[in-house]
Amino acid sequence: xxxxxxxxxxxxxxxxxxxxxxxxxxxxxxxxxxxxxxxxxxxxxxxxxxxxxxxxxxxxxxxxxxxxxxxxxxxxxxxxxxxxxxxxxxxxxxxxxxxxxxxxxxxxxxxxxxxxxxxxxxxxxxxxxxxxxxxxxxxxxxxxxxxxxxxxxxxxxxxxxxxxxxxxxxxxxxxxxxxxxxxxxxxxxxxxxxxxxxxxxxxxxxxxxxxxxxxxxxxxxxxxxxxxxxxxxxxxxxxxxxxxxxxxxxxxxxxxxxxxxxxxxxxxxxxxxxxxxxxxxxxxxxxxxxxxxxxxxxxxxxxxxxxxxxxxxxxxxxxxxxxxxxxxxxxxxxxxxxxxxxxxxxxxxxxxxxxxxxxxxxxxxxxxxxxxxxxxxxxxxxxxxxxxxxxxxxxxxxxxxxxxxxxxxxxxxxxxxxxxxxxxxxxxxxxxxxxxxxxxxxxxxxxxxxxxxxxxxxxxxxxxxxxxxxxxxxxxxxxxxxxxxxxxxxxxxxxxxxxxxxxxxxxxxxxxx
Length: 513
Known about the structure:
The chain is built from 17 helices and 27 strands. With 513 residues, it is of the alpha/beta class. Among the domains are: 10-155, Rossmann fold, CATH 3.40.50; 409-506, GMP Synthetase, Chain A, domain 3 (2-Layer Sandwich), CATH 3.30.300.30. The strands form seven sheets. It has a nine-stranded mixed beta sheet, with helices on both faces. The longest helix has 17 residues, at 13-29. Keywords: Ligase.
């Protein structure tokens, strides 16, 4: 029997199902039904799993929210999604209370001790303020929903784009055939097949579940009946301790975690028994070749990789053996996937010719962008979805990524879109113009860099720019490097020539992504 573990707390799969059914009745009493959205402003906690499952029982969409958001960013998502209810951790409520649309019901989850300790939360903020329903008490007021009211449609994930605001990826409820096919692909990508029975699988949630991949991985693991340990905040040595203590078999990670693990002292790296590991998969960001090779040498040939996007799902897969034979590849396409590299006219390119990567899982339930069907139409090329990457295939069918088709920055597995930061910089007094782009970062893969052109006669400093942005965007979007320039290079059209600014930072490196 599967279970969730967080700190000293444990929740078995039967108790999880019962609490989810109560939550479904509670959400139904608030007017939620098929096709509606419930926003989850939560860290990785039992309530995240309970509320997600509850929404599915109603045919509604759980919609995770990045809890790093500023009130302005959170308000956009709450309003754009049209969320009919919000479930939120107590310590996060104060920061976004003003952003919650009037009339939207809010249920508050007390912040558990292990999360409060990991994030340095003031103990006074861990309990819900007066006037708000408290999750556990609220659940007790409802009988469990007797049976599902509609097919579970999946999760709406707000994914970062290259311009403007995040886009909510919303899939139609799958047919039984589509659900079975998608489930089979996910099971292979996450290593759930060929490794014994579900109750033999033990995993640690290392990444926040507001991201697409950790969300899918965590919820799928729980549905499967695995043991899922929730690490409040990623810590490299703590992960090694958990692997040894719980005999962890499976992990889903991003390359920045590999970086931090490899930086541990040698005596720490050899201190723990990691022999239980059977399947580790990484995604979401490029992994430098030296880092991947070092992880395979340390942990053995258990390191796997998949490539895809929220829109396409996992379409390409790579084992350790594949990668060692084809260094730098992200893998080969699944049998169910149609993956091509095309030119500007949509023609499929031969091996080793670089073009845009387009892909689709054949027969997968279609998606749209919540509230913006035109963006969905714009994302399609030759009947496939363009995730925004350029790359090439080799003669053996292995895919290699070369660059981003757009300017989106991937920093530590998190998508950051420069247009948002540029928009906020443009509002700063004394700023005439600016350009934001990604530069190499040893730890995060890419870091945010901003070039700022002051208005004539105005003196600006790097610190002033960073201070301004900290009040406008989430902390991870604030540039690590700010350059003040008297003039920015421009194309004939007047558009800033970002490539000229960016190229010196990438000179001599074997990657541009």
